[in-house]
Amino acid sequence: MPERSPLSALPACFDPLRARPLRALAALRLSCATSVTTSPGRQRSAVRRCADQLRFTLIAEASDVGVSARKTSPFERPALSPWLQRPHAYEADVWSHVDRAVRSVQHMTELIAWARRHGRILVFGMPEDGFPLVMTPLSGDSVVQRCVDLARDAQQEAETISARLTSAHAALRETGRYGGGLVPFGYRKAPHPSGSGWCLAPDPDTAPLVRSIVSDVESGRSLLAIARDLNEQGVPVPRDRHAQLQGRSMGGRRHGRDFDRFRWTSGTLSKVLRSPTLMGHRTHGGQTVRDELGAPVLIGRPLLSDAEFDALQVTLRARSNGTHRPRRRTTALLIGVAHCQGCGGRMYFAARKGYAYGDYLCRATARGEVCPAPAGMRSDWLERYTLDRYHQATGKDGRAVREGLLRDGVRVTAAKGRRGGGPERNHGPDTARLTFTIGEPSDSRWDH
């Protein structure tokens, strides 16, 4: 029997011998990256192999590292999502395998619907078959069912792995062993005294710093001032310190922005100082894990005694003035859309007591930064301006929601206002301070 060619999966309307080869996007995804991982390279090679077999031209790469396919759909991933919003830029998406694209039947169904709606091709590498699985807008039910079946297999595999990890971590919590995850600030991983597994030991570089921070808090210094000092001294935040201990580079992506390293904020510092891990306790969900007799399960030598930790909590509660409460999910329209011109950071909504509207404000200080020109504007003014410009630019009618604005790449930048002015300042926004754009993701050219 002659060997099957992957080109046979393409209908005549996608003739690979046409004058212009079909443009393809390489899509990579990895749940967790370490300094020794080779998965992105293997995925890249597999994608190139598929493209060569189908005679596609790879124009760019969307690489989502540290992104779980079980928790996020393709339309929610930082690198891939902007490309899915502009399908006119290419004809095909190529993954090295189905589980690199989705681990959910629902997500596969959504992806297939998107491909058919926009007339795009989905390609999944199938190394076990020797040729890729290709789904075109004209593919029959058998190809669609094959895609769904593979997604179901990937979903079941993910659920099995998750159940095993949950069970393993529960057992490790009960025995005081370190089961992975973010190492608490002030500690580092060390061999368990039993000779089996790992526990935590004070980190000689950061444990003394924890005691110094506690002393500063007890002396009356604000968390914001301490955080500013830590940033000036170049002290890595817990996430970056964990990356250092793992041999990985610091920084990463947050709120759609890439950072070489993250910065201390009063919130980050508060989380460290309120954690029972400072007493050597094993925690889960921020709470102390206890044994059958109700005693705390210890995972390492304490950095603070119980009495010192309790005194610290009294000080922090007195500082919070009753404001330390669970974070509520915002419903503000322009979160992620409105940005400050002074620092480029997001603007956040702040309510005005007794008013139907609030304000969008630069919150650079909450990120541990100093903005040279912090912007602010009444929420109703900024929202009305944004929606007016959005409807003019897109021709869309009806009520807009934040998800739709973000999906269309809407960005509004506000500059700092002037002091003074007459009664006209109360009539509406100074639009000279505002810039409206509908952005497109920058091309990340495929590097051969």
TrEMBL record:
Domain named Recombinase: residues = 184-322
Annotated signal peptide: none
Keywords, sorted A to Z: DNA recombination, DNA-binding
Bias regions of kind Basic and acidic residues — which residues? 421-430
Pfam entry (one): Resolvase
Region entry Disordered: which residue ranges? 412-448
GO MF term (any one) = DNA strand exchange activity
Looking up Gene3D superfamilies in the UniProt record yields: Putative Large Serine Recombinase, Chain B, Domain 2, Resolvase, N-terminal catalytic domain
Q: What is this protein called?
A: Recombinase domain-containing protein
* Origin species: Streptomyces naganishii JCM 4654
